[in-house]
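ESCALATION

Customer reports they have been waiting on this structure for their group meeting. Please prioritize. Original submission:
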Amino acid sequence: MRVVLVPVSSIASWLKSFAEFISGLCKDAVASIRQWSPARKMAVAVAVIALVALILFVDLPDIGELRTWADGAGSWFIVLFWIGYVVLTLFPLPRTLWTVSAGLLLGPATGLLIALTALTASATIALLVVRGLLGDWMRPRLKHPAVAGINARLERRGWLAIASLRLVAGVPFSLLNYAAALTSIPVGQFAIATAVGSIPTTAIGVFFGDLLTGQTHPGIVVAMVVCALLGIGGLILDARMPVAEAGQGKTVD
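Update from on-call: job pushed to the front of the queue and completed.
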């Protein structure tokens, strides 16, 4: 097995370039916001305040409340639950409650199907919305040397990176959706990778209700560690695989 050592100078050079990219991005964002009309600034400010208030002050329903809603909604509960899962996971809110509740209220097979389809729909909608709002603004900035190679990988083989990151339970679901929207990863690749990569961690949540109570079974911890290691392994594999440049036979290391 050959071990490739990356020179410290190369890492330092990339970090400097990436810092310049972030600095330039922030300056461009401030300049763009200054050009907004007062009405648009007010609308965005209200939306941000509402989102922060939602995250900080609105309590998520507990399992007892969800059971009550299930009894009251009858056969419509599955549809309402799926819609609620999709809508609420568009925002940076924990999805563990919905995943575990899917298993407890709908059973393991139906619960897993509902959870996977809902989270895939939610992730895809989030990507399309963010890309629709910021994609044109962000696209030319992805040519910066610090991120051009990363963006090229996501555009041509983004499914591997996204699927690997979905395997790592500590990676925030919503934030990954937003970040992916600002790259060139194809929507189809993103959706499929989200669905496939989310199967293990979602199954853990659906099949083990004790995640909700905090009495975590050791087996769950082991399963999460294994998933995380697989995800990290996928990221390492992706980093080692070359990416062909568009329209050329050359590869990007």
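Sent to customer with the following note: The radius of gyration is 21 Å.
Escalation resolved.
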